[in-house]
Write a structure and sequence with these properties.
Distance between the termini: 18 Å
Number of helices: 7
Mean pLDDT: 95
Largest sheet: 6 strands, parallel
Radius of gyration: 15 Å
Low-confidence stretches: none
Structural class: alpha/beta
Oligomer: single chain
Strand content: 15-25%
Order of helices and strands: EHEHEHEHHEHEH
Length: 188
Amino acid sequence: MVAKSGRTMKHIVIIPGNGAGDVTAANWYGWAKRKLNAMEDVKCDLRNMPDPITARESVWIPFMRDEMNCGDNTIIVGHSSGAEAAMRFAERYKVKGIVVVSACVTDLGDENERASRYYSRPWDWDTIKSNTEWRVQFGSTDDQFIPWTEQQQVADGMTSELYKFDDKGHFMNTSFPKLIEVIKKKLE
């Protein structure tokens, strides 16, 4: 895709957490989409996902590839279950970069998370790293759903550029300025 400037458009997709309802009005997703689309030569995609409660890998990964057109020039921003989708996508396909927010490595004993099948096998960190030019992670030690030990395992496995907080919980705010700042730097 070519921008009006003649440069290649930068393709960014936001993959929400499961159960978010209308994602344009949930958490920081719609706000981030507007901020990213306001940048020169950027096209950001955010959609209500199919199978929004269970977020099955077998449904989300093909949707990301076929409907959202994730590919080797895409930056995937994933939150919670969307973070796991971003990582599993990068195990299969090359992407420009991934940004994971409140990521984990196990189903945490939750039956619904187990049904998604993201946690049914070990994470292939080496493939994730070889299929991405860069990896960024946002996590908070006071996340009410994801223990810090899980988030640290993701950081260690992906050797991500880690932004560690102690006051952001599960990143369910209506804005996320640091995310935009970091993505802007990656686009330079």
